[in-house]
Amino acid sequence: MPTDTYVGAIDQGTTGTRFMVFDHSGQVVANAYQKHEQIYPEPGWVEHDPMEIWENTKDVVTTGLTEAGLEPSQLEALGITNQRETTIVWDAQTGKPVHNALVWQDRRTTDRVEEIQEAGKVEWIREKTGLECDAYFSATKTEWILDNADPIKMDRSRTEDIRDRAENGELMMGTIDAWLIYNLTGNHITDVSNASRTMLFNIHDLAWDAELLEEFDVPASMLPEVRPSSDEDYYGYTDADGFLGEAVPVAGALGDQQAAMFGQTCFDEGDAKNTYGTGSFYLMNTGNEAVESDHGLLTTIGFQRSGEPVQYALEGAIFITGAAIEWLEDVDLIDNAAATAEMARSVDSTDGVYLVPAFTGLGAPHWDGRARGTIVGMTRGTRREHIVRATLESIAYQTRDVAEAMEADSGVETTSLRVDGGAVKNNFLCQLQSDIIGTEIVRPEVDETTALGSAYAAGLAVGYWETLDELRDNWQVDREFAVENPDGYDEKYERWAEAVERSKNWATDGGD
């Protein structure tokens, strides 16, 4: 393999878009990032502007290459990873969105979800999709856009209803990966990992489910073609006359949490990782078996390589972890995220304070869309240091909630957990996590494993890497955190469960 070629990864996240370029040893050779606007039209509603995301994607790709002194022709392939579930509907002719993207955190369809729950369809949906029926996923978001987006003005004389246009095959829907693949290549394609997050895809048949499409009134013509996560047939090429000026194969896509699992080289059954980003996502590879959860976890598709069976995963999705630290900054309890470790260390404990960061409801294993952020146990002696420490502890407690559910469902005891994401730079949090969960925590050298995973998927598809063993050899440990205080947190963890109960079902009609 020539030494001067590389693989690029577009990592389109909840708060911004990153472009990274990796060499054969998995080291970063280019990195550019740009934030995008978070739009909050009403409480519990979260939107993004898809056109802003596309413009930012082009900007970070060109900036990243320029700053690293690389030519687009040096890219063997492009991979994509993305915030999952976030949903866009766009015009097939103009390529323009009909509404802002509804973000995974958006709760506007909670009433619709409760209708489904009352109709007794939760288990029916779970059997097909592996998912809890929740506003988190794309199905109710797509339905909402089709019912609520403004009619499209066709010309001066007439407008046309969004639903009519969808029925006529004039609209497309997709998660962010499909939106970027469409804009990069002109093709309407998603991968199995992202399809499995829509609540419209049967993870056993590996096909869009006609009964679910009927339930949510989503025309099949809107849906992207579903391909392997690492696709030797490629999704397409960038336009040689477009912004890159080069026809680069787009050959891999993974939802961000599956991409992190792939980047952490969790290729074998029982391998587990936890990513600490806006939320936290704990995934365990369950091999070729879709393990059903009895403890509030999701059964999801991990990844698929060309010509190989799908590998499944169990997932614990925690909606708010890193975003809780951002909240501390927003309300001026801290100056910056880096200050949290020192402040938390400055007190011996939280002094009985518990913070439950259910700002957008509770995900796994509780699944309460009406839970809200709660602080309990405060006294007149409570200081901001106690609240900061309680926030860090909440991240670790929520992870233990998921870890215990994971062990109960899989029968596999976790002895070592691979971690990544922005928050794991915090040594205090990593040690706290080890103590609270009672497991060794392993942090890799390259902690941008989400981008790395999508680069690996694309690179394998084009032959830049030949085998999974090459990728395993690239994985290097930065630091391991062993359990230091295993007994100190069991009693506190029981109190944590009580605090969680107090946060539940708060956002009722009388409580909003």
From TrEMBL:
Per the record, what are the reactions this protein catalyses? Answer: glycerol + ATP = sn-glycerol 3-phosphate + ADP + H(+)
Q: Which residues form the Carbohydrate kinase FGGY C-terminal domain?
A: 273-461
For ATP, which residues are the binding ones?
A: T14, T15, T278, G322, G422
Asked if the record carries the keyword Disulfide bond, the reply is no
EC code: 2.7.1.30
Under the heading PANTHER family, the entry gives: GLYCEROL KINASE, SUGAR KINASE
**What protein name applies here?**
Glycerol kinase
